[in-house]
Amino acid sequence: MSVKDRGAQNSEVDEKIAALLTNSNAIKALARAVEGTIGPKGLDTMLVDQIGDVVITNDGVTILDMMDISHPAARLLIKTAKAQQEEIGDGTTTATIMAGTLVEEGVVQVMKGVPVIKVIEGMRLALKTALDVLDKKTIQIKDTTDDVLENVAQIAGRGHKDIARLVYEALGIIGREKLLEPSFKLADTIRAYEGAENQVISGVVLDKPPMNMEMPKKLKGVKLLVIDDALEPEEIDDEALATEVGVNRYIQFQEEFKENIRKIVGLGVNMILVDRGVHDAAEEILTDAHVMVVQRVSNKELYRAAEHCGAKMLKRTGLKKKEEELLAGCGNAEEAFYDEKLKHVRLLGGGAKTQATILVGASTQEVVGERERIAKDAASAVQAAVKGGIMAGGGTVELAVSREVEKARREIKGMAVYGMDCVIAALKRPFSQIVMNAGFNPLEKIGDVTAAQVECGKDSLGIDCDTGEISDMAQKGVYDPAPVKRYALSAAGEIAEAILRIDTIIKKKEEGGSGLPRAEKI
Q: Whose CA is closest to 373, among 141, 129, 190?
């Protein structure tokens, strides 16, 4: 090979390494942004926008979502964190920290001369081993009244005992069967308000006032109609209105609509929830009849209210149904009232499937959002625990799993072992960061805990972040949901592999551009 050819080859290698380093640095920057928040001694992050509005939080996905990020690799990690939040509702900080470690360690191995494909191969082997071991160490939850679930809520809720208690109380109302439904999310039942009293309501909260203040503010013996549509006459297009036939049909629709509204009133319906707007004629008739109407109700709240009361959701054309059919579609509840302080309507004591709403109070408007995020994390963690079980927290189980991966490593020949080393480092990272955030030396504590776990045969041994002493996390009630750990490790592995496989970054041509495509290396 000539000197010129060798120089060109070296230049190409340098470009690929540069792309890898650029992506790695972006991922590490995100991991550094959230790593200080993990654990009982984790601190908060302040996010400030261009006009000076401030959000203070230690919720990983909130920090990532609000950061001003333009790097494509970093944005890929943020999407992965959001996917974890959507799927599990917790563990985004752990996933981000593990992904940062996997990428960082992977780059170290590549810089030593290990082929990327071998690093990825080893990662895959180690991740499979780790996930299998995690499954074996999972403790299933059989009863929603198990006290351990309150501990899970408290850990996920960053030590807020009042919020953990609310979430735990809600479990008794909702029940295991509801928690296991794929479409149900306990986090969706959280409502946070300034000046509210912490409480769990056996019912549904609608974040809207009655349509007007002349309507009743309190009802006993609710007969509910739910309209998954606008409460308006059937529409006629503009072209039809330009004809005499069209005008006559418009007048007919208007009269039929009014008659249908009067029919509803005659059936004894005293509360109507509407997905969209309400026609003026309907508002006037219903106000005079002392019917409470709540319009523009969110789809989630509409569905929950219908399920709670046993109502069938109707479209506007459903108002034409016979009286007995409309009656069969009505729901029932014991009470509905408008809370003037919190500006919402409560629907209580439904006659069908019991719903629960968790009200979280906050002293000022500035902390409402953070209290709500804390409560949603706690609720998501509890639901994940019921669905997929629990295991000791504090990063202790991951340490034990790392030893199992080390054993599997000894059975592997070839350069894939270096990829397994990356996973071993990532498994140790949550424990190290928790200990570091508590003000202790992570290398020292990893050694102490590892020796203690091996000697006692207990994977739950970890570090008390107050004293720095070895402590049994299980005995202290420190548990994490198993699905959170599994998903975090899987997500970290996926993002690390995706980043490590990139060896060139090319700028795309602009959408709708003309002429020849431009491939410009970044």
A: 190
β partners of residue 390: 139, 481
pLDDT of 90 strictly over 90: no
Residue among 296, 273, 293 at smallest CA distance from 283: 293
Task: Give the C-alpha separation, 175 to 491, whole Å.
Answer: 30
Would you give the DSSP letter of residue 188?
Answer: G
Residue owning tokens 């308006």: 232
| Summary mean pLDDT of the chain | 88
Return d(Cα 70, Cα 58) in angstroms, integer. 22
- Token code pair at residue 409: 């490593």
Q: Which of 176, 164, 169 is nearest to 140 (CA)?
A: 176
State how far the Cα of 137 lies from the Cα of 391, in Å rounded to an integer. Answer: 7
8-state DSSP, 292: E
Instruction: Please name each of the domains of the chain with its CATH number.
Output: 10-139+391-505 (1.10.560.10), 203-355 (3.50.7.10)
Distances in whole angstroms, Cα of residue 391 to Cα of each of 347, 456, 480, 484: 37, 17, 6, 10
The pLDDT, as a whole number, for residue 519 is: 46
Q: Strands, E, within 328-423: which ranges?
A: 331-339, 344-350, 357-362, 390-392
The SS3 assignment for 200 reads strand
Helix boundaries (H) for 204-243: 238-241
Tens digits of residue pLDDT in 9-46: 444 446 667 778 888 888 888 888 888 888 888 887 88
Residue 48 parent element (H or E): strand 45-48
Beta bridge partners of 346: 205, 337
Copy the structure tokens of residue 411.
Answer: 């059975």
| Structure-token pair, residue 119 | 């690093």
